[in-house]
Amino acid sequence: MAAAKQGKSASNIHIGIGGWNYAPWRDNFYPAGLAQARELEYASRHLTAIEINSTYHGTQKRSSFANWRDATPDGFVFSVKASRFATNRRVLAEGADSISRFIDSGIAELRDKLGPIVWQFAPTKQFVADDFEAFLDLLPDAVEGVKLRHVMEVRHESFMCEEYLKLSRRFKAATVFTDSPKYPSFADLTSDFVYARLMNAGEKIVTGYAPKDLDQWAQRVGAWANGKAPDDLPRVDGPGKLKPKEVFLFFINGAKERAPAAAGALLERLGWSPSEAVPVKAKAAASKAPSAKTATARKTSARKVA
């Protein structure tokens, strides 16, 4: 299938969601009658990026990465969450084998659609400078000729220190910014790109975030994309000297069923709109709306930790 071009927008801004196979999205994002096999095709034409989360839980097939690449339009970007076996360990420096298995699993098949690799750490994982430096030193700059960029999602307050910031900057590793009250929230730049995971969506708001909040996020994204640090986000060591060149922002958790609407509303504020529709072939049972009981069951069974 030839990839179609994305809608018009700044090429250094990527806005999206985590994953694409989520049952409640079949009630409020994917149109009735759309085959599940075409959900990625549809999502990638209504958003500009997707964070692949399944890679965190287990190894994916090389052919899957190639299929995902071919199903999405030119300009679309996947970020990929790294294997939990590399990060959920007492001594990070001992994770070389797990890191290699993940890196060599086929992510290079995404080619120019491969965005940053997200290394997520447990909320209980504290910052130990020597061990974390050894971990960063294990991360390769490229695989099979494809350049790699790395993002640290640190979830313990001990990382909110100048020593961590200096270390991550030395290795040019970005640090996740999140608006979640459950995790440390600091927007210090540690690489030449920004990576934000927003987890504070509300179920009662159609777009997950109120219009004024989306307006504010549009302003922040615009500032980042123009090489500036927003003045209203918390930082540990001040503005710093780094100037971002690219922005990745994902609506990940909270009321996850609202994530696509939130991403779409933010993209609209940034001047982007879908470039084409995905044809929908109606199914025999497509006209039957799911009952409230069925929808609730789908939502409960499909929800996963981001």
Let me know the largest β-sheet: 8 strands, parallel, barrel
Strand fraction: 15-25%
Please give the number of β-strands. 10
Give the overall shape, derived from the CA principal axes. globular
Number of domains: 1
CA radius of gyration is 19 Å
Named CATH topology: TIM Barrel
Strand order of the largest sheet: 1-2-3-4-7-8-9-10
SSE order:
EHHEHHEHHEHEEEHEEHEHH
- CATH class reads Alpha Beta
Per CATH, the superfamily is Protein of unknown function UPF0759
User: Architecture, according to CATH?
Assistant: Alpha-Beta Barrel
Mean pLDDT: 89
Keywords:
eight-stranded parallel β-barrel, 306 residues, alpha/beta, disordered N terminus, globular, 30% helix
How would you summarize this macromolecular structure in one to three sentences?
With 306 residues, the protein is of the alpha/beta class. The chain contains 11 helices and 10 strands.
Describe this structure in words.
The chain is globular, with a radius of gyration of 19 Å. The longest helix is centred in the C-terminal third of the chain and has 15 residues, at 211-225. It has 306 residues and is an alpha/beta fold. The protein has helices at residues 25-28, 39-43, 54-57, 62-71, 84-87, 96-103, 129-138, 162-170, 211-225, 259-269, 292-302, and strands at 13-18, 49-52, 77-81, 114-120, 142-143, 146-147, 150-153, 174-178, 193-198, 246-251. The strands form two sheets. The protein has an eight-stranded parallel beta barrel. It starts with 12 loop residues before the first strand and ends with a helix. The chain is 30% helix and 15% strand. The protein has eleven helices and ten strands. It has a single domain, classed as Protein of unknown function UPF0759 (TIM Barrel, Alpha-Beta Barrel).
